[in-house]
Amino acid sequence: FSDPKMLGLVLVLASVLAWVSGQSLGVPLNHLNVNGALNDGVYVEVSVGSPGQTVAVLLDTGSSTLAVPLTTATCLPQCAGSGTCLYPQCPADDDDDSSCVIGNFDFGASSTASVVPSSSSPCCQNCQAPGSPALCGFAVAYGGSQNMCEMQGIQGVWVQDTLTLDGTGATVTFGAITDVEYGFQEPPCAGIFGVAFEANNFLSPSLTAFATGSTAATAFPTAMTTFLQSAGLPNKLGFCLGGPGEPGTLTLGGPDSNLYTGSFMRATLDVSMGSYGVAVTQVGMGSGQMMASPDFSGTVLDTGTSFLCVTQAALDFMTNTQCMADSDCDIELTLDGPDGGVTLQIPGALSCNQGTCANTASQWVQVCGNPVIGYVALRNYYMVLDRDTSAGTPHASFAAPTSACVTSNVLPSRYTGSVAAAEPDNSDSSSSSSSSPSSSSSSSSAVFSHWMNGVTCLCSCRNTPSDSAVLSYHLSTGASSSTSLRYRQCKMF
Predict the structure, then answer these.
(1) pTM of the prediction?
(2) What is the 8-class DSSP label of residue 33?
(3) Which of 10, 79, 85, 377 has the CA that lies 20 to 30 A from 429?
(4) Cis ω on the peptide bond leading into residue 51 (within 30° of 0)?
């Protein structure tokens, strides 16, 4: 649409229709390509601005900020000498090479973009952006270090513009990244989409302020909260994370009945710290051995963390477990909740090595400061996160995924019944408190296999088929417009 007003009217009508029909919206979840491994987490492609600009962002339940890089984003100046930082996944001799990521944000090209001034009420006092005192600044550190150049952080300015997901748009506040530190993202992500709670969106105005312990913090409603409210959708998110080489689906507004089978089992969420916290009451292994008095306080559910993060005592218990087969090394975590809670089974994180359970080459189980249930565990389930705290205690609900959740190369059909009918069904009192993941096929259609090659192409175009072969395949299969974008980016080589 060349007329921004007409585009706005279409987006409003789409939101109204979604609300009237009770549909949840569906967004494809694609897999990160980290060192050739297609099972290290998921990302979504969002559209920002008018006309829309496509940007790939890591989907992260452990943070709350939507942030995308400006076209002018650079390495944080004071850390420029510490190595490749802006796009570390790209050729090492060029840290400004954006060929390995999908998209960025051209503020000037959007007719609906506006900046948040530092004098506005949501911007805290002394929260001016570095080098731009008239603008409201933000900074997020993801690495945990207090060392200025080891925080895997980003900084920039707050802006407001249209966010479009599955054809539905809303005006949200998000971060426009001006400076990046080493380690911030993995290919092909250019930014991040945090979908936790408001408490995690109280951000420092700059990385310098964060490193020096400044208490100044700016808070805005999270982009996901604003989007769901504007679309008239319940404050719920459904996660079908897919499998290696297979796409998944993020459902906005509630569960999609095509993506799970059987009953949901619920775990109580503690959202007091802004994350999806759970209480781990029991740790066991497939062999039947149980850990005595496990200390998993502060555990969170986090799709943005690839591995299972545990205490040293828990790792020692797991890797000292005797085994006869890999199944003896399956990890079982029981989460507190109504009706006995839920036991998450985590196969494949450890393997049986000469009679003792051990970490695999992927190092899926690691020791961290705070326990985290990451992608390696959550990928086995269809998970629904209830973000609505106004109706009592929120819950995380888990069910076995259907084949459509893990093997479809197209977005599964959306739930078309009423939103109320889509609520998790906990009425089956005879169901087990252990939600067992269903087996999934590892096959992918030729179209999706080639589509995934397109993602790989972004990261190593010099080792992919010729541009003409890629483009002719795209034309013959009628691939989606977003796929076309990837191939056009490959063609730039």
Answers:
(1) 0.75
(2) -
(3) 377
(4) yes
